[in-house]
Amino acid sequence: MQLDVLTRLNAERVARRAAILVTDLDGGAQRVVCEADIAADPLADLLARRLASGRSGIAEVEGRQLFLTVQAPPVRLVIVGAVHISQALGPMATALDLAVTVIDPRTAFATPERFPGIDLVGAWPDEALGAAVPVLDRYCAVAALTHDPKIDDPALAAALRAECFYIGALGSKKTHAARVARLAAAGFAPEAIGRIAAPIGLNIGAISPAEIAVSILAEIVAVLRAPRDRAAP
Amino acid sequence: MLSTETDILSAAEAWRRAGRGVALATVIETWGSAPRPVGSHLVVDGEGNFLGSVSGGCVEGAVITEGIEAIADGRARVVEFGVADETAWRVGLSCGGRIRVYVEPIT
Q1: Where does the chain cross the membrane (chain B) (predicted)?
Q2: Structurally, what CATH architecture does the domain formed by A76-225 represent?
């Protein structure tokens, strides 16, 4: 691999853009195709399918064996609410290599003492996203945990618009029904709203904050690793 | 801390820029119960220092040797490890899987 090919791959990842490295296993020729350039590429269909699947693999093209390395940006987890569950969720998510950010405008909650070592932003989601926190994208998971619609709803709306691969919201079925009604009134389609995991987390009977954090992370991993057709990480 | 694919490719670039000989190994195909998925990387330098994993430990030693050879001769190669392969028995891919690994020098 030429150093400039490797440099380009690393630069795309840092910029949070997907890319595919095409390696000719017979001759060793290599090239990087950025997400934005896939449509115009001679292998457009093949590359688009690979990117959508999120899986690297071998492809036969005109008698040649190609290896396609699919490089998706590192997954981020944006936690809305510096609450008790978030205190457990942050470090666990970090251990899973998710890049974690906690957002909460309530300064009594969003204190460094409660979140040592975690990227913490004391602002409203609308203020934070695109400023202190990079804009959401398809390679983000969002967990809304405040129970407060004033804080959760704008974050959920932003997550739906950005097509985040995972969107979860804490709250009972009744709370969620009210949330669905608000998002529908705000113009979101039922299919979009249906992507919100609520009540959040796999049903493992979790009770303690740490157990709930496990159930949320298990659900995020399940969505992240599930075979899929739609474009996602 | 576990190294991620991100760390590995960043390290490969940093090591090369620091003037070290570097090879990158990538799992390109697996059969049976292979421990690491297709696309997994391992980076190795000329001294045998390495980061990442292509087999969860089973054939790492052999892959590192291939990497050092790739650095020396400047050529990429595909190597296969599996139960049908004498070398694989020796290096111990005891899980019964087979993997193909692309090993290439960073030039």
Answers
A1: none
A2: 3-Layer(aba) Sandwich (3.40)
